[in-house]
What we know:
Blueprint: H1 36-39, E1 55-62, E2 80-86, H2 96-107, E3 119-125, E4 128-133, H3 138-147, E5 155-163, E6 172-180, E7 185-193, E8 199-201, H4 210-221, E9 224-226, E10 255-256, E11 261-262
Parallel strand pairs: 4-7, 8-9
Antiparallel strand pairs: 1-2, 3-4, 5-6, 6-7, 10-11
Amino acid sequence: MTGQGGEGxxxxxxxxxxxxxxxxxxxxxxxxxxxxxxxxxxxxxLPVGPDATEVEVVEVRxxxxxxxxxxxxxxxxGLRRPVxxxxxxxxxxxxxxxxxxxxxxxxxxxxxxxxNGAIEKVVVDRGEVTFFVRREDxxxxxxxxxxxxxxxxxxxxxxxxxxxxxxxxxxxxxxYHLLSMTHNRRIRVEVAAPDSDPHIPSIVETYPTADWxxxxxxxxxxxxxxxxxxLTRILMPDDWPGHPxxxxxxxxxxPVEYKGATIPPPDQRRSYS
Length: 273
């Protein structure tokens, strides 16, 4: 430690204190500084995760809850949130993803290499890969995925539905989760169909495990799997109107059995201010 009377008249510095660099000034605490994403964020827009893949904006939603033009003072009414869908990823995809994509290109064709290929696009996001397949080509694609020695996706572990009302002409999606026990790999296959023609070929003949999964997807989303041996509802009553997991399915307003009452829609239950 240098005292005040030391040679050169330097100021006192305590043991263990970092030396101050006059060229840079005092560094504020990191927690007090806004992140780069927040610094560049437009007003009233929610941030997007730093690991988000390339996306296509199909709609912008405004507000969060409550009636527009009301006395809401929470600030949520001013939020803007883009509705985005993943765009096709660019090569190289990384690791074995390229190996699978190259082999599929040889067998069924990729759109970026062959005109009208069976694979519309490949999306790599958060360390997972999804192959978007034309619905008419789904049976031959999954047959190759199961039988080709370089692929060998022997197990279909599930089929799920998704409803994207904003994606005009491709509102309904079926998502297939495949596992290769031979190569220890997992992929997704995704197929889209319009609301006006919600038909997708069944793949029960290739993957028998798709049986009840396709029935559940039909039950909740209204996707019709052509060629399914017994496509009936599996969870809802046979006479249930509509498909409950579609985003246009009404919330509330459903008569309560045995009670003679009705559940009102959420926007009529309470008002936010």
